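Input:
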Amino acid sequence: MTIASLIASPSELTDAASNKTAIVLMTRIRLARNLAGQPFPGWAKPAQRTRVAEICTAAVAAATPLKRSLNVAVEQLGELEKQILVERHLISRELSGSKQGSSVIISKDQTVSVMVNEEDHLRIQVLRAGFQLKKTWNVINELDTALEASLDYAFSPTLGYLTACPTNLGTGMRASAMMHLPALVISSQMEKVVRAVNQLGMVVRGLFGEGSDASGSIFQISNQTTLGESEEEILKRLTSVLQSIIEHELNAREKLLEADSGKLFDKIGRAYGIMQNSHLLNSSEAMNLLSLIRLGIDLGVFPDANRSTIDRLFIEAQPGHLQHAQKGEFDPAQRDLLRAAHLRSEFANFVRPDFSLINSNGKN
Amino acid sequence: MANPLKCDLCDKPATVHLTQIVSNKVHKVDLCEACAQAKGVTDPSGFSLSDLLLKASLNPEAASGAMRCESCGFTQADFKKHGRFGCPACYDAFKGMLEPMLDGMHKGTKHTGKVPQAALARQTLHERLSKLELDLSDAIKSERYEDAARTRDEISQVKQAPHQSPPR
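Output:
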């Protein structure tokens, strides 16, 4: 598979959206693994990095879920291609900036990706649309076991999988859910949620991980600790945290409808108007407007079938995807014009909001 | 003690004393005003102690001398700079400073999750073979031919084992 054909086909995130993905857009698990007796990528010499990459890519490409996958060295990717892969959560920003010996293997359906020589020798990742922690874990666990049959992992009986950074020791697992939480943002409860989630040993980040902002009211919630608990225990804890966040979001929606439905309808209606008529949209504003339309869909203002359109536009509004679609590189000001034009045409035939269809319970 | 507390990151007197509970564990740091500002401690929502603890536990006084990993040449100073280790063997080399650090960083200090069974079995086998081969050459060197023959047989047995059902 080539990078061009991968980019041309829809990612898991843009395709499989249904009402099951209403609040949890995507589930993702990654495992950090290293080879025994080899220096970690950040400390290895170029020849050692290349050697590790050869061993790892051979083993990974032979694994069943990664047959007929894209297997490419980072240095062979163009800037725009890398940006698109980051926007699809298939590679990290760290990998896209890394040097010789780093590569990525991505499955045809874009649900499995393995980064080689990122912070660790292997960063195995599986993602699924919707709230699917268990299923995602089963897939990644199986892949990891298959790789271990030919790779000698660095492992200690007391410390677990040995990773470059001690914060990933033990299971080497980070499980996360990407959540759309517009009502908690509108009612300024997010700060409180973040604090509560932190106390439970979980972390809240923006859409693109560490240091990114939460435009579009999209957040990633993941486990902070990796040692001292089994994978199942971590997933169980994360699941209960996510469920309680979902509950809080649904309550917040109900309260918004009860307390000041006019204000909420105004926000959604205006978002629709701007989508149809604006000529300049930066990516943050576009994300926030799309978020309001998506909230409208969850509330029943727009038909359910339109949710997958919005989830696709969340990605197409990103700078990398936008420039790729327009076949060129553009400065931010030009991008804002192009983004608005794209969204205008998408919304030209988008069904009109009907506020009489609102479900009083705020759920769909 | 009349000595005022010193900042965990530099040696200035500490004026900011922070206690935070992360996953049911109490963490305390003492910082000077400048470090507190730089680390965003004044912003309670966005601040997490874990990054800080990682560095604080690396105080020269907390760890004894400059440790070094024989396997990859990584030093304590390197860790202080990068926050990451050089190779898997570093976890042995820096054991002394690791434990207090892990205590603050994770839910526990002992792994209870998945174990790479296949990789470990291979490793055990490999270690056993290299020990037997050492025995063999020792036996030959000291002209203990009976021992050598026995060891040789054992080696060929062990080498066949992975193709059959698990030994004993």
